[in-house]
Amino acid sequence: xxxxxxxxxxxxxxxxxxxxxxxxxxxxCVPGVKINFDPxxxxxxxxxxxxxxxxxxxxxxxxxxxxGILAKFSFSPDGRTFTxxxxxxxxxxDGTLVTPEQAAKSIKAILPWRPLGDRIRIGTSDKIELHxxxxxxxxxxKVLDRDTFQISFQSSADNLTGLIREALSKGSMHNRxxxxxxxxxxxxxxxxxxxIGKHPIRIGKQSxxxxxxxxxxxxxxxxxxxxxxxxxYPTNSQGDARKFEWIRAKSERAVIAExxxxxxxxxxxxxxxxxxxxxxxxxxxFLGFTPINSFFKQGEPGYSPRINWPTDFSLTMMRRxxxxxxxxxxxxxxxxxxxxxxxxxxxxxxxxxKEASSSDAHVMGTLVSNGRLIFxxxxxxxxxxxxxxxxxxxxxxxxxxxxxxxASTVPPGTPLLQELEQAAQKEFSIIPLAxxxxxxxxxxxxxxxxxxxxxxxxxxxSKVKD
Length: 466
Description:
Shape: globular
Distance between the termini: 50 Å
Oligomer: single chain
CATH class of the largest domain: Alpha Beta
Number of strands: 22
């Protein structure tokens, strides 16, 4: 297939800004991911959301509609027709207004690439890539006036309105949508990708810069973020309170492990699961960790006082073989590496998702929203979940049912969630390790700091008001 190259260039939300408007700045680091604003791809690494949530403007912001793409939205009585009215001052880099057609086509093109696309379609909803976006079909889209569009959805889901609202709203993660377009660069055959962001964005060959007030936030990626001014993935070296302020989110993340059913016997999976639980039961509280007995806490759907995962393991059995653990979170790797050394266990660690097939387990964190473990509805579609769970047939079966039922308005009920936990415990497939309040490390000399919202949305703000 021949593709026209796509160049990421200047991206803005609002009016054009001059380079001189930037003053000093701060480095915001997300470890081990490629910073990529192409929306027509699967978001299969949760760490990408650490910069996408900071940079991309959501369609719906319930508490402040003026800060979203849409000023108003509604559903038809059957939930299959969505009407959106644009905020009037959302503009492209050349100063032109975003049109209803552009916003609606962004939703249609992105949908097949998100977990939501397994359950909902707009017209044919075939996957397309950036090079063919400009000429893509408007099937299922209707422009009502210069500010308003309608989209007709095809779905058998009973909770269609909840699914759509959740995906388009602030706080959306693996189903995240943003407005984009491609334009021809003057004098070339190359395309330029432009998006609408929370802050004006300048993308260069070496770095991506957000204009936050009068400050610069330089988005940066590195295997570790030890030298960054701001990071969601702090390491032990950033624990010096004289140099760093630690900002703790109100929302929790579930720390879980997927254990490969294909690489180890049930006996060894049980030992590895218990060892991992023992490791994270000792994870330091100042880093936001809290031990947990099962997937669900008291008061959350799925909780049962009768379910209690073990932390006892046989050190002799753990030392009988060499293990390999995948995790993209530096602090998780540090905690496990230190404990393996202490226990005398031969264990290799990697943050490279391409090594999933040779790894015994994948340790990751995922958002908990209003008592819901969001990963349960999408785990089969991201983070190598299908690979690690292949062979764990009972777990896979329940996860497929959860995926089909999940939405903010109709979350899976307690019986189904308890069925999942019982299957996972029997097969040692998905393991609850801990809960953690996300912690951002911010250098005290940084002009910018981090902001968490209750729904998990992330943002950068200036420490000093203009």
